[in-house]
Amino acid sequence: MQVVFLPDGADLDALSTAYGITLLYPQAKILLPGAASSSFRLALKHFENLLKDKTIKPDSLKEVDTVFLPDSNNIKLAEKKLSPYLKKDTHFVIIDHHPLRGRLSGNIEKHIQNTGAATTIIVNRIKRSGINITPEEATLLALGIYEDTGSFTYNTTTPKDLRAAAYLISKGADLELIRGIIEERIDQEQIEIIHQLVENIQYFFIKNSRIIFTFAYSDHYIPDISSFLHLIKPLQEADAFFVLVNEKGKTSIIARSKKKEIDVGKIMSYLGGGGHYSAASATVKGLTVQEIKNYIETVLLGEAYKNKTIQEFMSTQIITVKKSSKIKQIKELAEKAPVLFVVNGRGKFEGIVLSKVIKESIRHGIEDIKVENFIIDSIITFEPETTLSEAERVVSSSSQEYFPVIKNGYPVGVINRTYIIKVLHGQVFDSEKDIFISRERIKPRYLNYRSKLEKFLPEHILTELEYIGKLSARLGFNTYLVGGIVRDMVLGKKNLDIDLIVEGDALELARAYAKEKKVPCHTFEEFMTAQITLKTGEKIDLATARKETYTHPGAYPKVEKATIKEDLYRRDFTINTLAVELTEGRFGILVDYFNGLKDIKDRMVRILHQLSFIEDPIRILRALRFAGRLGFRLGRPTEKLLKLAVDENMLELAPTGRVNLELTYTFNEEKVIDILFLMNKYRVLHSLIPEFYMDEKREELLSRLRDTIISFEMFLELKVDRVSNYLMALLYHLPFELSYKFLEKYHFSKTIKFFEEYYEIKDLLEKIPEKDSDLYKKIKFIKKDLLVYICASSPVELAERIIRILKKEGERQLLISGKDLKELGIPPSPIYRKILDDVFKKYLDDEIKSKKEALEYVKKQYLGG
Fold it and tell me: Which one, of 533, 540, 529, lies nearest residue 485 by Cα?
């Protein structure tokens, strides 16, 4: 038996080629796919009489001698689908216009040519064989050529395609019928997918190319998507694009490219697919859309930077110490770099030692101990020949900041994670550079805020700040109140988190204040910070104004004392750069270097320089948290750069512990829903959470969850675990295994237990008892935090019943007690529990509504009265 194999999703080119094969090999039968495009199905209907004797059904298959693969070279897929019928020596014949990606072995015959359509190859063979074809057959064959060349408009079209089409037209091909079959027909499901693709566009820039990734989700196969991608204008303007459509765990990828250096056929071959450099596809199972995107980005970076190595970017200015050295011998070296390389007697690398550990050891008087006692040897290292793309893969899954470069066992350099990221992604953000340079040159504003400061701060704190200002002047320092407290003072919002920046020495100022006031003081030499505690209990944090400079790219940062302006320039957003001077003689003068006041007035969140989101990707989360909390919007350049940072997957490079902290802050914000909607708008949630989508169901759940939390905390006086509840609302679409991976990655250990307990009890309420007393039996052992989510995700009527039951549970002691039973003359005994449970059951079911009725019931039921 000879079989022409057409896989699911086969197009008109595959069908036309398949029919041509049956003309050359009359014994061959076409095995039609289970799923196909609407144009494919329409062609089957039009050419039903032509094809009826040319096809075979799966249940009619017998032992196969020859397998033909039209418009495909995926032998593995054919072997998998036809395995019960294949022989050891089954002959495979490939008729394809896609280049091979790898070597094929076995009994294989290949007819592969560089044409716009595979049908062209088969038509030329038919022509050479002298086989006479009818106008109907010519029309069916021409369909494949017209579809796969875009009616000869695609840049993969060749003269051979035009000559083959001319031959078919001479044989009577019906062009009107061809146009009718391949013209666009868009149904509602396809419109919905196109809408998702437009909404989910993300840009990825590499060298001088603009690449688009976009995604859509469906619970079943949607045919013909590739036929309508030309309707999405941004895709047509991009240098290349990757469309990922997830259908219940299986992701179909459609890839197109205008540039030969972005060979999408090669990239898709790595994922089990294939195609031309300009058009390719693949189907992937077992990976999330985000994982596939990350993989493709890694391949693209690898291709673009395959000749760039760590050696070109590393710093060779490293400091080595022998492991046998004593701490006191290297204390001066600890001031020169944050990391020291430890070597053995032969100079070979043994590990690293952190300078801050050395300094701390010296501070505690431990100086005679050897360096080898502090070695960290479980660290990631690179070789000079390691490529940048390889390095990024490592960096993205590690929290390590500095990476030693080792050659033949000897340390030769160092590179930090931030610099690797800047090299690979920094060019994307250069378009906004001039805007931020001009902002640095803004003339500072000085305003007298003394009266506002006096109204805003409690009198005793104001008194202490004035004292610090006098002490600062005495020591020759300038001291400023900075950060969120100044921003909130301008906004009229309460805030007593007191942060001070000192031009001079914060540690000296803190110690002097603590000595004179006789209050506790804690200093942190490594970070040039200190904390003092007022006699009234409030804490004041002080930091020396500082800046970080790099002697050359890739080198260690050098921390130096700085001016207040230089320190404020390191902040995240302009609204957080305001400072109020406390120094005697200038007390209460607000200094605005970066138009922070204007941005507060305009209700705008702006970053200070174009690489802000690269240097600290956590600022992506903070920008949206501040915008949501304050009701602000993002400045236009900031918005553009935030979108680019998300598209560049910068959050994947953020320390996972800090992601945890920022999300925890978000879930505990009063305007958490506004923030989450912003995170959805800017696709931050999609970047963090596998297969995330926001629909009406989730929007309603989040709103109900917020209201339910308020109800539980207000009426039941409970402190709700907001973090676990909101994470459940964001992750409920995932299987537990994927949720667990996310929670473990971002250190939500408490929430893992919450999820485990929820999945254990979630089926308990599949059948809802009619009586509240029976419902109480089901819920009384469920933790209140879990009941919050159950209420929010259940029908409103059930949620109201649960809350009503919990309120009554809180009133149980007020209804009737053991003391009441004793006063009724019932002697203490185990029957008390039975009576109290019985009365409470009646109370739940509204058969008893007051204490009076409860006492009457007990008298009647248990005292015969």
Answer: 540
